[in-house]
Amino acid sequence: MPHKVQLFITCLAEQFYPKTLKQMVGILDRLGVVIEFPQDQTCCGQPFFNSGYQSEARKMALNWLRTFGRSSTPIVSPSGSCIDMVRHHYPALFDEGTPEYSLAIEVAARSFEFTEYLVHELKVIDVGAHYPHKVTYHASCHLLRGLGLRQEARQLLEAVQDLDLIPLPDEETCCGFGGVFSVIYPEVSRAMMDAKVKNIIATGAEAVVACDAGCLMNISGGLKKAGSSIKAVHLIEILAADGEA
């Protein structure tokens, strides 16, 4: 029986990284995974939740749960941040013993970040990618601290043919984005981003890789401001590469 998944594409990825979403579909298709796309999917509600608007977040969460709850198929997303929201915060939005709470628990248990799904569910590390460039890796906060995924992205990168993975100083330190954090505390956010960018430039890498769109947007902006030619790319872009990039 082939593996089947429902794709949860996320807001930032849809708006700013549509190419990455297409590449994700291509990788899953190449691995023989049958893909479903729930047409009614919307934002998971994380921006509301992080801003303290729990009633609004609850409404969006319920819509999301009903959309992805129509099937028992695993849910896969290119965002550790959004999957962390679904897995750890959705159940807390509803009272225990209610149908909504039960649905949140059930759906959370079959929601996976992309690297997590490849390594732990498909048992795949080498996807046949070829990327002959120097690369460094930034560990996104929600992927690392929220989901506990420390090695998965690295394992996938290390399996890419001809890729030179260079250690990033303070790899696990936040880039300063944090969603609404960067808006509420711009000075602190900027200082964190500047430190991250300085470390990235010091590696001499041609590209910095992360697994969350928010981090990529923030780091990309910081690199551009610093006048650096280093690219900030999603891990999926590396895994989809055939040596021509």
What is the number of helices?
Answer: 13
Annotation, overall tally of beta strands? 8
* Share in helix: 40-55%
Report the structural category.
alpha/beta
Strand count, sense and barrel status of the largest sheet are: 4 strands, parallel
Number of domains: 2
From the spread of the alpha carbons, the general shape counts as: globular
In which order are the strands of the major sheet placed? 2-1-3-4
The H-and-E topology, N to C, reads as: EHHEHHEHHEHEHHEHHEHEH
Could you list the spans in which at least 5 consecutive residues all have pLDDT below 50?
none
What portion of the residues fall into strands of 2 or more residues?
5-15%
Overall pLDDT: 95
**First-last Cα distance:** 34 Å
What's the gyration radius in Å?
A: 18 Å
Descriptive overview:
The protein has helices at 11-16, 18-30, 46-50, 54-68, 80-89, 99-108, 114-121, 141-146, 152-158, 181-184, 186-203, 213-225, 235-239; strands at 4-7, 34-36, 75-77, 111-113, 134-137, 164-166, 207-210, 231-234. It is of the alpha/beta class and 245 residues long. The protein has two domains: 4-120, no CATH class; 125-239, Rossmann fold (3-Layer(aba) Sandwich). The chain has a four-stranded parallel β-sheet with strand order 2-1-3-4, with helices on both faces. Helix 12 (213-225) links the parallel strand 7 (207-210) and strand 8. Helix 4 crosses helix 6, helix 5 runs antiparallel to helix 6 (99-108) and helix 11 (186-203) crosses helix 12. The longest helix is centred in the C-terminal third of the chain and has 18 residues, at 186-203. The chain is globular and about 55 Å long. It starts with a strand and ends in a 6-residue tail after the last helix. The model has no long low-confidence stretch (mean pLDDT 95).
